[in-house]
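Sorry, I am new here, but would you mind making up a protein's amino acid sequence and the tokens describing how it folds?
***
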Amino acid sequence: MNTIREQYPYLYETHLHTSESSACAVSPGAYMARACKEYGYAGIFVTDHNWGGNTATDRNLPWEEWVDTFEQGYLQAAQEGARIGLDVFFGYEAGYQGTEFLIYGVDAAWLKAHPQIQYATVEEQYRLVHEAGGLVVHAHPFRAANYIPEIRLYPEWVDGVEGINATHSNSRSMTHNSAGFDKKAIAYAGEHGLPITAGSDIHSTDLFGGGVAFRRKIISARDYAQAVINGEDYILTNGEVWYDKFGNII
């Protein structure tokens, strides 16, 4: 493991929620940032639930006010990250009746300028995010849960698949425990030639340690988006097991 981390020293948590902006989260953004820094992450992506998911932000707010309020978890994490030396990037988890997508490479200003994203179809979401140079990853596509009425797959309207979700397979997880969800996601990604990503889907400071590790430092959310889309060299982990970028155990 030490050799792997020496070769890929920059580990990023790509799926993280804060209590400011996700109703299901326990810990505030600043606490999450500190815990991730102490764990050894080089950076994190704050991916709180948007208006279509389990958001903590009042859906009745005017759009720009909604975005300002929704962004608070990220801003608190970013402020603490700047203080302690942790890179914090903006993202969000988009929900469509239980089907969820991780969005990277856009920011709050972009959201304010694109209010139509609230009503976009999965196809329209993909096109809008791509126009901005962003990335759409299907989050935990085969998870079975009471809030997911059916498995819906959109291989033509995503850039990648979250093949490793630590909530499914890390021994410390207390929910959604089934490594089979990840096995199906990895096979699905391979069938369609889609890049695989990994994240913890973490909601508290009790970290799992999942994520994507690179040989180099990621400088922005769009940099991450392009690294995934362009097939850059990286490895994946659920916090206990390491995988190559195709989902094979190393």
User: Anything to note?
Assistant: The first helix runs from residue 2 to 7.
